[in-house]
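My current task is to audit a protein record that another person submitted. I have pasted the whole thing underneath without changing anything:
***
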Amino acid sequence: MNRVYIKTYGCQMNQRDSEQVACDLRSRGYSIVQHEEDADVVLLNTCSVRDQAEQKAIGKAGHLARRKRENPNFVLGILGCMAQNRGSELLDRLPDLDLVAGTQKFHRVPDHLDNLIASMNAQGPRPTSILDLEEELDSQNAINSHKAGERQVSAFVSIMQGCNMKCTFCIVPKTRGPERARPIAHIIQEVETLVANGTREVTLLGQIVTSYGRREIPFIDKKSPFVQLLEQLNEIDGLERIRFTSPHPRGFKEDLVEAYGRLDKLCEYAHLPVQSGSDRILKAMNRPYSVDRYMQLVRDLRAVQPDMYFSTDIIVGFPGETDQDFQMTCDMFEEIGFDMAFIFKYSPRSGTPAAELHDDVPKTVKEERNQILLKILEKQSRRRNASLVGTIQEILVECPARKGEGMFMGRTRGFRKVIFPASQRLIGEMVDVEIEESSVTTLKGRLSLTGVDTGMAVAT
């Protein structure tokens, strides 16, 4: 009864939460398996940002419930945002669930599983399902940190939880609660431990990561707490790269823009969720910036770091979005030349202000607009990748590639995936790779032998 499979839906924050649950369970004596068929316990860590993500998780839980009816000792749990959002409704819909744990209760999962399994081993009646959604806003347990001994070349580091923004389409403030931040010293200590174990790149995580510490930590020399954190991370020996997600355009003040020009470990990549290219729709979304202000931010970042890479989030089919509004989004999308994007079809989320609006954009129109933007993105990504052919890129070697014997995968500072022949011992090292081929999503190349010990035999 100690084999656990965790399936994760949604964002990097969810992925980090799943990593922490897995680590906590291992320390309690559980075994984390890679296939659900091998598991005695399946936990679904869920997302509520889009209806599609919720429906996938509910469908999966329904499928697994049939297995539980065949094997009463099989344990099934739902964790995270959908658990927090839907609560007891999930138990009504899926009565075979054993555990429903919210976004601030990940650290309680080992205790809950221990109790469930102990009840089953006692051979009494089927234990009562556990519903644990209570807020722990003051508990550092709600913001996960890595445990000593974990080894990751690239690691997610949670620096805060919650969101104080009031975007009309977004359910995150309900599922994650208000903003609260970890102390800078705790984060630095965690990253130093990671680096000592072989981590070379960290990605800082928060619902609005650029709002980090604004209520708890004072500004110093006109620098926000977030920029102060970046500066201290930049001084850690052995750490090679710093990234962060997900920010808000409003958080890119002069101090953060300027940091891209002077902090050498801060990668020239920015995820800037714009959501729409229409000021009218942005206002309806309660996004506190205009298209002109957003475009100026892009220009400012390119002024301090000309080789910037940009990704974004876009919602198509928001209530009231006209053909003209969508065309404005397309125009802005092409003018900026986004390298990557997450493009979503609007779906109402219960409990949000936008859910009270008339969802007047037909599904067929949403799908058409989604496909139009995806084609623009494909063109832009292909063009940017093609421009890198013939260049030498600094790559952090992450892991063996999924396909190809002797092939390995790493990323550029601009977050482009690169596949190349290498050796196992180069994992975690920074190497130069000459780019020889490109596609929409991937670059291929070979190690540049100049100044690099590849660890590979070279024919002479």
